[in-house]
Design brief:
Elements lengths: L8 E5 L13 E7 L8 E6 L3 E6 L4 E5 L14 E6 L8 E6 L3 E6 L4 E5 L14 E6 L10 E8 L6 E9 L4 E7 L12 E8 L14 E5 L4 E3 L5 E3 L5 E4 L12 H9 L5 H11 L2 H7 L19 H11 L3 H6 L1
Antiparallel strand pairs: 1-2, 3-4, 4-5, 5-6, 7-8, 8-9, 9-10, 11-12, 12-13, 13-14, 15-18, 16-17
């Protein structure tokens, strides 16, 4: 659970270190703080079968947990019990990440997709069934400018079979692309079982509206439906996708100009303003996230490059100095 104040808490099964708390105790029933990510302004978290990932507001990707197939993107198959920086994605400008049972997909700001981990069903989209230990660009999607990604899995009832797949959405074409397991009705036209490269499929829902003119352009529920041999239907993906131009990198509480303007426009400092100030300025993650460089330089954040726009920090303090009550509270 990612809190508004920037802290990440995890609990539950931990057989492969997927909770990221530095130990591999089999079960942790109470929420535990993931210390390794403290102070990092997180935008998103994602969980797979037994591995976890997170993306910071600066586009840095961290992964931990099970790594039998290379699903952590670290170049090996060793499990990690603490969040580990995925150096191979350092210049990727990550805006979205999704985890399947044993594979991971990452979306860049430019709309490129890379995948890694288990590839036995073709779910990586590289025209093979090989596993990938490092992030690899899905070549067939170059130039498509993907706007959303989701990794899926489905356990076939009364069997030990596991179907794995990846689904991406291209806003400009209003079209979905699918790759991975195609059995049991995941694909409406019953193509061959495993799709090794992305293939276009018609949008399951037709809103009758153009995505070019609507920020919240598509709401898709139960994308694919399958039937088992007994004859009853069940949802295969049962994923709710809410595609929005502003849906990426918006995890924790950060300062907004409109909010600050509202603070200084009031004569005093109300309790709600004080609560917001305490929330943001008591958290390293929220402070760091509030002053990231907005000119894409924050995507290059490293030990050498802070990614913080100090001119924005100066501008903020100059602005709130107009209201001494707010200034003192900060």
């Amino acid at each position: 659970s990612l809190c508004e104040g920037g802290e990440l808490f995890t609990w539950g099964q931990n057989t492969h270190g997927q909770l990221g708390v530095g130990s591999q105790i089999a079960l942790t029933p109470e929420p535990q703080l993931v210390e390794r990510l403290k102070g990092i302004p997180l935008a998103q978290i994602a969980a797979g079968g037994a591995h976890s990932t997170s993306v910071s507001l600066s586009g840095a990707v961290y992964s931990w947990g099970k790594n039998s197939f290379g699903q952590l993107g670290l170049g090996d198959t060793k499990d990690r019990d603490c969040p580990t920086y995925v150096g191979a994605l350092e210049h990727w400008k990550t805006v979205l990440i999704s985890c399947g049972a044993d594979h991971t997909a990452v979306l860049s700001k430019e709309g490129l997709v890379c995948t890694f981990g288990a590839g036995g069903s073709g779910q990586l989209g590289h025209n093979s069934t090989q596993n990938e230990l490092l992030p690899r660009v899905v070549a067939e999607l170059r130039g498509a400018k993907v706007s959303h990604i989701v990794c899926g899995r489905w356990d076939v009832p009364m069997t030990c079979l596991l179907r794995q797949h990846t689904l991406v959405y291209v806003r400009s074409l209003d079209k979905f692309y699918f790759f991975g397991s195609g059995e049991e009705g995941q694909l409406e036209d019953e193509r061959k079982p495993n799709q090794l490269i992305p293939i276009p499929i018609d949008s399951p829902v037709n809103t009758g509206k153009s995505c070019q003119s609507n920020d919240h352009c598509r709401y898709v529920q139960s994308v694919f439906v399958s039937s088992n041999p007994i004859g009853y239907s069940l949802n295969f993906v049962n994923v709710v996708m809410y595609f929005s131009q502003n849906s990426h990198l918006n995890g924790i509480a950060t300062l907004e100009d409109k909010e600050v303007d509202a603070w200084i426009s009031k004569s005093g400092c109300s309790e709600s303003i004080k609560r917001n100030i305490r929330l943001i300025f008591s958290s390293e993650a929220c402070i760091n996230g509030s002053f990231l460089d907005k000119r894409d330089k924050h995507f290059k954040t490293s030990k050498e490059v802070s990614g913080i726009d100090m001119s924005e920090v100066k501008r903020f303090y100059e602005k709130i100095s107009k209201n001494q009550t707010v200034y003192q509270e900060v």
